[in-house]
Amino acid sequence: MSDKYIKKGSLSVSSDLEAFLKSEVLPGLDLSEDHFWSSFEKILNEFSPRNKELLDIRESMQNQIDAWHIANPGEEKNLDVYKDFLKSIGYLLPEGEDFQITTDNVDPEISSIAGPQLVVPVMNARFALNAANARWGSLYDALYGTDMISEDDGAERAGAYNPIRGDKVIAFSKNFLDHHFSLNNGSYADTCSFSIKDGVLSIELNNGEIAHLKSSDQFQGYQGSPEKPSGILLKHNNLHAEIQIDSSDSVGATDPAGIKDVLLESAITTIQDCEDSVAAVDGEDKVNVYRNWLGLMKGDLKETFIKGGSEMTRSLNPNRSYIAADGSNFQLSGRSLMLVRNVGHLMTNPAILDQDGKEVPEGILDAMFTICIAMHDLNGDSDIKNSQAGSIYIVKPKMHGPDEVQFTCDLFSAVETSLNLNQLTAKVGIMDEERRTTVNLKECIRIAQDRVIFINTGFLDRTGDEIHTSMEAGPMIPKAEMKQQPWILAYEDWNVDSGLETGFKGNAQIGKGMWPMPDEMLNMYKTKTMHPESGANCAWVPSPTGATLHAMHYHQILVSERQQALIKRAKASLDDILTIPVMTDPQSLTTEMIQKELDNNAQGILGYVVRWVDQGVGCSKVPDINNIGLMEDRATCRISSQHIANWLHHSICSEDQVLETMKRMAVVVDQQNSGDPTYQPMAPSYEGIAFQAACNLAIQGREQPSGYTEPILHEMRLKFKA
């Protein structure tokens, strides 16, 4: 941790952050250093007290809810009485009249194109670039390299190129084309050449016949020459696909038409994350986060790394060029449209200290820096541009209710004024992952109606908040049963209903949560149709490969049609949302069931926390107790720690049992990480900072503000760095 500070007015700024702003951020912007810091000081003076007030309200409400449950055991089942209580403390607000959002200057990737969305830790330049470049993905590679194609009948994945597996991949891909880009006769399996004649795509079949697209308007353009194109661009459900042709390619050489690959438009948007997937605890870390965001906004981010013994450099993909049917030239973006996720309202950060020597709220810091950095994109004149509409897209997590949304909107407005930006340049994505936001979602959207571009459900954080809010109501059901509960099903539908009711269709994103198992792509392919089916026009996937495979679902389902049908249904039940998932009969839990639940939660916490604290890794593929790799971030850690805290509080288990479980699971996690030379084992001493952090998260979970993991993780990481 940097302990060097430089005075800027009444602020003490980390020397790392001060130097970064001066030498990297401000050059090229019409802003002086003095103006930036004096404006920021003014914003901090105005908004820091409001930030604290909002956190105090959270705590006050939680204390009142705890006291009510203790005084009225079991009374939450009487939903009319329970709702009256929530209204009396201002937790549940009256719903106002109908309205429609008015956000303008929104890029089509958000307003009108439905497709996969990536979330990636912006602190890792390689991951950030991979995600930004995942706008286009090879269907052949995605199928060949995953369990989408079975290894039966000699189609193994391992080793050099396997032509048996390759044939299965090609057959699958051509079947996909047949389904969504149908020919008037024959199949893509029968093609032997492509050409463009009089602006029409002409396809010669093996039997000498000429085929055309059933829907001629699906043909968008080509690369190469009309007589011998190297690429054919098609469009369906607002998404592009490109048939790539090259007879000299090793795969193309085996294809009668020379097809070497099918390229799918995949990750339409990417959230570059400064929050749950990163471990940024001081000025040095925040500079690493902001520097990568700056590289993405200027279009010059590069990362050099060793792969297969060779040095490789990754940079942002250029746009893709095509010739239209009428002979004119046009381009499509080669990159996902990028949003940036700021941190929430809770945490402070020692990157800047105020006049009293106190850490400033990190959410205010993020707003000032991420918006200022994004001005490079607004001013940029290179082809590598993010927003064509002149907007900055900020996803804001972990807000509790409309007052906190109001605070965010006011903060963005103040930053815009200080940086001489037009009002409403900074758009807001509202993450619906806290219970008080869910039950008041329409009113949260109303507050941000001229800025909002996104709402989504995040069931992991939302479950963590569900447990913490109702900690005193009783012991919660086992974690695996949560997804089948009335509250969570209603919450998922309520989010879509609220978005459609307030005019999101054709204007903004309604998102759904992560598929957490990056190695189980076949299972994802079979089940994740439920997200576009539910009316969501984007959903999170764990990798660029996952984005390409999930993209096929948006060809199967036209989300705008689905939304039109869903607008007419009755809104999800608030009573269901407020049905707390407490166990009806805790005595039915056997000793074995309790221990299995503790083992599962403890192993997940330890596997994630040890990398967070010791290595500063905020998101990674962590093997679970069954050695299945799961994408873990702070949200998964929050639910596991809150679940143990709840069972501890209600004497389902004891502190000694939790500690014994932690020690046993530490041995398991050590074994799972034995191949990492940088890894520091937790056993047998159990005295390391990471092990202590994991234990604290569970044992002190009930006392943590809103059940968040950040206070303990930040404290322990700073301790480790020191």
Descriptive report:
- The structure is a single chain.
- This protein has 722 residues and is an alpha/beta fold.
- The protein folds into three domains: 97-135 and 269-316 and 324-577, Malate synthase, domain 3 (TIM Barrel), CATH 3.20.20; 137-265, Malate synthase G - maily-beta sub-domain; 586-721, Up-down Bundle (Malate Synthase G, Chain: A, Domain 4), CATH 1.20.1220.12.
- Helix content is 42%, strand content 19%.
- The protein is built from 24 helices and 26 strands.
- An eight-stranded parallel barrel has the order 3-12-17-20-21-22-23-24, surrounded by six helices. Strands 4-11-10-9-8 form a five-stranded antiparallel β-sheet. Strands 1-2-18-19 form a four-stranded antiparallel β-sheet.
- β20, α10 (402-418) and β21 form a beta-alpha-beta unit.
- α20 (591-615) packs across α21.
- It is globular and about 80 Å long.
List the SSEs and their pairings.
Elements: E1 5-8, E2 11-14, H1 15-25, H2 33-71, H3 79-88, H4 108-111, E3 115-121, H5 125-132, E4 136-138, H6 139-144, H7 163-180, E5 191-197, E6 200-205, E7 210-211, E8 219-224, E9 229-236, E10 239-245, E11 259-265, E12 269-273, H8 283-298, E13 302-307, E14 310-315, E15 320-323, E16 329-332, E17 337-341, E18 348-353, E19 359-361, H9 362-379, E20 392-396, H10 402-418, E21 426-432, H11 435-439, H12 441-447, E22 452-457, H13 459-469, H14 486-501, E23 509-512, H15 521-527, H16 530-533, E24 538-541, H17 544-556, H18 559-566, H19 574-577, H20 591-615, E25 620-623, E26 629-632, H21 634-649, H22 655-672, H23 689-699, H24 710-721
Helix pairs in contact: 1-8, 2-10, 8-9, 9-10, 10-12, 13-21, 20-21, 20-22, 20-23, 20-24, 21-23, 22-23, 23-24
